[in-house]
Each structure stands twice: as structure tokens, then as C-alpha cells.
Specification:
By secondary structure, the chain is α+β, with helices and mostly antiparallel strands. The chain is built from 15 helices and eleven strands. The strands form three sheets. Strands 1, 2, 3, 4, 5, 8 and 9 form a seven-stranded antiparallel sheet that branches. A two-stranded antiparallel ribbon has the order 6-7. A hairpin with a 5-residue loop joins strand 2 (43-45) and strand 3 (51-55). The longest helix is centred in the C-terminal third of the chain and has 23 residues, at 238-260.
Length: 364
């Protein structure tokens, strides 16, 4: 069975005011005391000092992955308390923030190269790594994942506010993310050789610093034998992150089986994929989405059902079908992170209350 790992970026906020706090160095210093037994630190520095990132170990069982996410979020909260702040699984800050870029040669290069776009990138995502047998299989998977990734954006949407204002979007993070020159959906590659040639051509322009800055919606990991799916907002609740990881693994497995069976990928243009991404960011689960099977608008519940049907065999084989169905039904009924934030703001009129509510739910 394919293994899955999750990387989550968390926002550091003042526990009283809800305002972002540039305390990542203090949080990471405390975390380092507990990471001595790890081959690699669990917690890592991010682009901005108001954020921290963590990565789980690869897991085959989703229950184990979920337990890891819950445990590490609790550890992050403990380290943050000791540093005088709190962690919130928010994909953007509801309250106004002046981002502080972290120290380091790479981050300074980005700040010099991209200027205001770098300062605006205080956004938190959820990246899912799914194991693949080879680069050839990985690229075949990336080619076949493309139409379905917007559905993961809609399910995970958790960023309706930006700099103290309502945006009208469910996932405004995904719109901000596209300000990077290498971000977004990709054309069909057809082979690992063509994928690597494209990456080399991008690097040769000097516009990006290294392979880690190839911000495709789905890419081959530069470090691990995985396909990395990068379209999701950081999810408010850990169980939503597990759902996104479950569906990502099922998509990779289904795509690999289609490739092995000689089934060609859908030849949707990047223009159509960008429209589907925009629709998912705008609507989340509260309106129409673009159905990957028809590339036409359909209600969100219909599109989510299409996804479940598309990956049903893979979910059945991994033992995740019923849990995935229940989790999707729960999100459609009760709302994703964006809907929770919007409901709190509609009820209280307070963005501070939005943040403090999300601090509590981050560990729920």
C-alpha cells in the first residue's frame, strides 16, 4: 500500500488579540529540545516569522496519520504557549498583518527577486506526499491528477479573509499563491524525461532559485520518491487533513492504475484547469464547481460524489471508502474551515473571535 505523509503550515497568533506574531524562532527553539531523537526536526522554519511548518512520518494507515497530525498539532500548541503565542490552522490571517521574512540566504533571495509578492505570501497550505515507484510512474500520475485537484481545494478551503477584510472567496490563499511565477496547473508532460527537461528549462531562466521553487499543483518531490500534491489550504480540523490525504492517495493509486492499463490522461487545457481552480477557490463547497468529468459547472455535492466514484476502487482496496464517504458528507453538511470562519464572523462581527475559535478547533 502506498505511504502518505503530510506537511502543514500553521499561523502563530496572539492568544488574546488574534493578531499574527513573529515568534517562529522562539517556537522552533523550544521544539528543538524535544527533537533530539529525530533524524530530522519535526518542525521547520517557513518563509515568514509568523509561521511554522511540520511534517509527519510516512504512514500506510490513515488512522496512524491522523493520530500523528493531532499529536504534532498539540506539540506545536505547547511550544507556542511557552513562547507566548498560539497556533492556528488558518490558511490566511483574518486580521491585518505585516509579514516578517525569515532570516536566511534563500528567503532573502526570494524577497529581493519577488518583492511585494514575497511579503504577501503569508499563507498556510497542506501538502500531501504519496509514494510512487519511479519518476516515470510519478509523472504519469501527475498528468492524470490534473482535473481532480480543484476538488481538493474546495474541500480544504479555509481562507475567506485577507488583511482584515472579507474576500468573497473560500480559498483566497490559492489566489495569493498564484503570484509565484512557477505556481499553478501544468500541461501534460507525457514522460519523466519531459518533466525533468521542463524543470531544467525553468531553472535556466534564472527566475526561480532551485528545484524546490517549482510550485506545480502536483510535482515530483525533490527529496523523496513521492508525488507531492500542493493545492490544499491548511485544514482547520485534523480530520479534514486526513480526508484530503486519503483522497490524494486514492487519486494517485487510481491514476497509476489507469497508466498501467494504457488509459490516456484527459487532455484539458491549462486555461480550463485554471478556471476550475478559480471556481473552487471562489465557491468552496457552497456553490457550483467545475466537474472534472465534463468540465462544466455542477453543484459541489455532485462533483464531490464524482470524485468518490472515480477513486472508489482504490478507496475500497485501502479500506478507506466508508470513512471517506462519511467525512465528505460531514463537510458538505457542516461546512469546511472557510464556512466555519464565515459563520463565526456573521454571528459575532469579530475577526478576533474568528481567530480564537480557530485556535481552539486546530486541536479539536
Amino acid at each position: 500500500m502506498r505511504t502518505v505523509g503530510v506537511e502543514e503550515e500553521l499561523l502563530l497568533v496572539d492568544p488574546e488579540t488574534g493578531e499574527p506574531r513573529a515568534l517562529s524562532a522562539a517556537v522552533l527553539a523550544r521544539a528543538a529540545r524535544y527533537d533530539v531523537a529525530e533524524e530530522e526536526p519535526v518542525f521547520q522554519k517557513e518563509l515568514h516569522n509568523q509561521m511554522v511548518e511540520f511534517a509527519t512520518h510516512p504512514r500506510s494507515e490513515m488512522a496512524e496519520l491522523g493520530a500523528d497530525i493531532v499529536r504534532i498539532r498539540a506539540e506545536a500548541a505547547k511550544h507556542a504557549r511557552e513562547a507566548g503565542c498560539a497556533v492556528a490552522a488558518l490558511a490566511t490571517s483574518p486580521l491585518a498583518v505585516r509579514p516578517s521574512v525569515s532570516i536566511g540566504t534563500r528567503y532573502r533571495w526570494m524577497a529581493d527577486q519577488y518583492r511585494i509578492a514575497t511579503r504577501e505570501q503569508i499563507v498556510c497550505g497542506c501538502h500531501v506526499h504519496v509514494s510512487v515507484a519511479s519518476d516515470e510512474e510519478g509523472v504519469a500520475v501527475i498528468d492524470r491528477l490534473r482535473p481532480w485537484l480543484s476538488v481538493l481545494t474546495a474541500l480544504s478551503a479555509n481562507s475567506p479573509f485577507w488583511q482584515g477584510r472579507e474576500t468573497g472567496y473560500s480559498s483566497y490563499r490559492s489566489r495569493v499563491w498564484l503570484r509565484w511565477p512557477s505556481a499553478g496547473p501544468t500541461e501534460l508532460f507525457g514522460s519523466a524525461e519531459r518533466y525533468h527537461r521542463r524543470v531544467a528549462d525553468m531553472l535556466a531562466t534564472g527566475t526561480i532559485l532551485d528545484e524546490k521553487m517549482v510550485y506545480f499543483d502536483a510535482r515530483l518531490s525533490a527529496r523523496w520518491p513521492t508525488v507531492e500534491v500542493r493545492v490544499a489550504d491548511v485544514c482547520l480540523r485534523a480530520d479534514t487533513a486526513v480526508l484530503v490525504a486519503t483522497l490524494a492517495r486514492a487519486l494517485v493509486e487510481t491514476a497509476a492504475r489507469d497508466w498501467e492499463a494504457g488509459k490516456e490522461p484527459a487532455d484539458h487545457s491549462v486555461s480550463l484547469l485554471r478556471l476550475a481552480d478559480w471556481r473552487a477557490a471562489r465557491s468552496g463547497l457552497t456553490g457550483d464547481l467545475v466537474d472534472p468529468l465534463t468540465m462544466r459547472n455542477a453543484p459541489a455535492e455532485t462533483v464531490v460524489q464524482s470524485l468518490l466514484e472515480y477513486v472508489e476502487d482504490a478507496l475500497t482496496d485501502s479500506g478507506d471508502l466508508e470513512r471517506a464517504r462519511e467525512a465528505c458528507a460531514g463537510l458538505l453538511l457542516n461546512g469546511n474551515g472557510s464556512q466555519v470562519q464565515q459563520e463565526v464572523f456573521a454571528r459575532t462581527g469579530s475577526l478576533r473571535e474568528v481567530v480564537t475559535t480557530c485556535v481552539r478547533q486546530t486541536q479539536a
